């Protein structure tokens, strides 16, 4: 049996198993006992390990890739060559005449520390899914120059998005006084806060210049709005009132701003630059938005569970910093007394243990996963609603985009 | 005699007197003695006081304004009403749904702390100088709607430029750990570094969104390049080698990036948005560039002299922070041994006294003022080279732009 089929079967079993266990636990007591049982299930642990190892590889830029059958697609392999082109162009785009600024700006674009390149992958797949082909080398036939030029414009959106994403990381790391990022020292840790703020500003301005070169002011506006959303989301997180912190609406709005707006507006930009209808542009936007939301919801689960399936094995970094996410919000709905525990501050280990106990006996983790799955389904449905197209590349890219929604909700890191 | 004529005569006398004294002092000894004499001359001191007081008023946003004859223009009064419109729009443009971000973003746009509004003044004057009239109220005749819409687009350039300028101030204050700005606590001092970085990013993205709404990608590119120049200039200043710090070319390049690029590209944007020829766009750019350079050169002089005419009475903040500016660079050309004094560090009071002594016996201050005057002349010449136009408003705005070049080089604060 091929690896992919095996994993698919495991995934299906794990999901069904998981869903059944959670769906039929209605009382807090049942929840606790089932949760304990769930984490000690050897079958489940084995399944998780296999999935975890596979997704680790799927998300890493190097190392062996999983094998796929012909009708299956690995989203990351599908755009691997083009991602290299984008990465090279990114490195050349952030060159400046001032050596220190150049070093700072290219810090996270260097080989080996480019990160998962999740956003460029989505954007390039969306480009093909909307029927903008990568031009074939001249030896394979006549090169369609228009198509090639258009493809380069779409690659620019991937580059711009990545520059903005890295700029936001640089500024976030200054704000959070972070000392590591992508497995190496954060730029502020290595070169200081000043150069990190400046390098972030530089990347934003370079992204804006590149945007202007696309000569489409609607796209400039979309992407600039996404930058504003990144800032708004960050500020909402750091300056919320107690009431806002306990509101699911506020949480989802902040999550959209911080994680989903950039990718959704980038996907929409791809549609606009390729002259699609408003309806298709909206579908592209909906895909990006729902994928982004699903991604963040699972991130919030992983903050509690880590690579294991146990509560409290994650870094717990959000909750320690007073950032209340979906699992706790759902838990508070079931156990309102948890709110006072959270308000007392979870930097106190006793409060933290108590909060995790409440979370464990609640449906918080389960409901967050279910919400993530709903958004993943919506993303998938958006792809299914695109105008029919029989082209093989288009079909393959659409399958890859849908595959990404599964990867996002089933990942363990 | 009207005040303006009196001031003009004083200025003329002071300039001639000053130039003669400096031009005919060839030895260091003569320079020192003449410099002392210059500062003790009661006539000169009186002249300086009158000029200082007048320019203080000219630069302040409130208080009594100087009186002008009919053919004379006060640049700031000429656009005062429109500046209020711009200020109100700016305040409404930085509103967001997150109260803390809104407070931070509007911090320097509030009544009384808007600063000199030098850039918006130049931009609005340039708009009229290129024959884009302010539409008259309907009661005075038929309103030219096209003209009115175009004028609002040009006002947007003033608003965008001011947002970018304030964003750069917010980030600069974080970089420099500054605790005051415009006579009040700096934003980082009052609300913290995090919100200052975010508010700067927010203003940049809001500026970019407003830029996109103008639907002219060449203008987006120009202004985004100016933002990049702000960053490049700041980085050049903080990461220069000893060799670069002693290079006049490096200093002028950095000065262009930090001070002149934004205003020159904004002026050029006005020309582009009004459909001027490439030649006129270049003249507008040249005006802004040379005015900006003259402004900064005088700033560098004032860092040594302050509101008095004596060396060492300024804040000396640049030189204390190891930032070598034109006066010292010229002094090093005459006295190469000053370089070693500077390299030893001027945070040591003995080195500082020695450096000021060298500067006093050199032509450093004089040559910097002369260079500023040359750039002011070039700015003025750019205005004279604009296509002829007999319209009274156009003529008046052009005179005001030229008047600004005098104000810039003769200011004492």
TrEMBL record, chains A, B:
**Any one biological process term the GO annotation gives:** isoprenoid biosynthetic process
Q: What is its main location?
A: mitochondrion
GO CC annotation terms, alphabetical:
mitochondrion; transferase complex
GO terms assigned for molecular function? metal ion binding; prenyltransferase activity
Provide the protein's localization. Mitochondrion
Database matches in CDD domains: Trans_IPPS_HT
The keyword Lipid biosynthesis appears for this protein = no
Q: Which Pfam families match?
A: polyprenyl_synt (PF00348)
Stated name of the protein: Geranyl diphosphate synthase
Its taxonomic path starts at: Eukaryota, Viridiplantae, Streptophyta, Embryophyta, Tracheophyta
Keyword terms, alphabetized = Isoprene biosynthesis, Magnesium, Metal-binding, Mitochondrion, Transferase
Q: Which Gene3D superfamilies match?
A: Farnesyl Diphosphate Synthase
The protein's required cofactor(s) are namely:
Mg(2+)
């Amino acid at each position: 049996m091929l690896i992919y089929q095996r994993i698919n079967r495991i995934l299906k079993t794990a999901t069904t198993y998981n869903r059944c266990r959670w769906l039929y636990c209605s009382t807090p007591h049942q929840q606790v006992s089932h949760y304990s049982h769930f984490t000690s299930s050897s079958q489940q642990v084995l399944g998780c390990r296999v999935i975890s190892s596979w997704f680790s590889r799927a998300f890493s830029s190097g190392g062996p890739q999983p094998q796929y059958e012909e009708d299956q697609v690995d989203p990351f392999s599908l755009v691997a060559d083009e991602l290299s082109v984008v990465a090279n162009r990114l490195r050349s785009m952030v060159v400046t005449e001032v050596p220190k600024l150049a070093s700072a700006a290219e810090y996270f674009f260097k080989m080996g520390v480019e990160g998962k390149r999740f956003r460029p992958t989505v954007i390039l797949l969306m480009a093909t899914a909307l029927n903008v082909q990568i031009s074939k080398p001249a030896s394979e036939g006549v090169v369609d120059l228009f198509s090639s030029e258009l493809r380069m414009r779409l690659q620019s959106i991937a580059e711009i998005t990545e520059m903005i994403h890295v700029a936001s990381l640089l500024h976030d790391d200054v704000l959070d006084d972070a000392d590591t990022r992508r497995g190496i020292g954060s730029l502020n840790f290595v070169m200081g806060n000043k150069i990190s703020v400046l390098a972030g500003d530089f990347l934003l301005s370079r992204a804006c210049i590149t945007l202007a070169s696309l000569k489409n002011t609607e796209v400039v506006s979309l992407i600039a709005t996404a930058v504003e959303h990144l800032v708004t989301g960050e500020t909402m997180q750091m300056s919320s009132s107690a009431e806002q912190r306990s509101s699911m609406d506020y949480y989802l709005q902040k999550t959209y701003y911080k994680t989903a707006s950039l990718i959704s507006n980038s996907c929409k930009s791809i549609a606009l630059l390729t002259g699609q209808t408003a309806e298709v542009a909206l579908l592209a936007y909906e895909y990006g938005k729902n994928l982004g939301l699903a991604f963040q919801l699972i991130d919030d689960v992983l903050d509690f569970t880590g690579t294991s399936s146990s509560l409290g094995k994650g870094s717990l970094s959000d909750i320690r910093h007073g950032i209340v996410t979906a699992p706790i919000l759902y838990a508070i709905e079931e156990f309102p007394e948890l709110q006072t525990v959270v308000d007392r501050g979870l930097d106190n280990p006793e409060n933290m243990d108590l909060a995790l106990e409440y979370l464990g006996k609640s449906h918080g983790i389960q409901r967050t996963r279910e919400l993530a799955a709903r958004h993943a389904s919506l993303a998938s449905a958006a792809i299914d609603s695109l105008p029919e197209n029989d082209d093989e590349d288009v079909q393959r890219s659409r399958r890859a985009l849908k595959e990404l929604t599964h990867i996002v909700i089933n990942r363990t890191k």
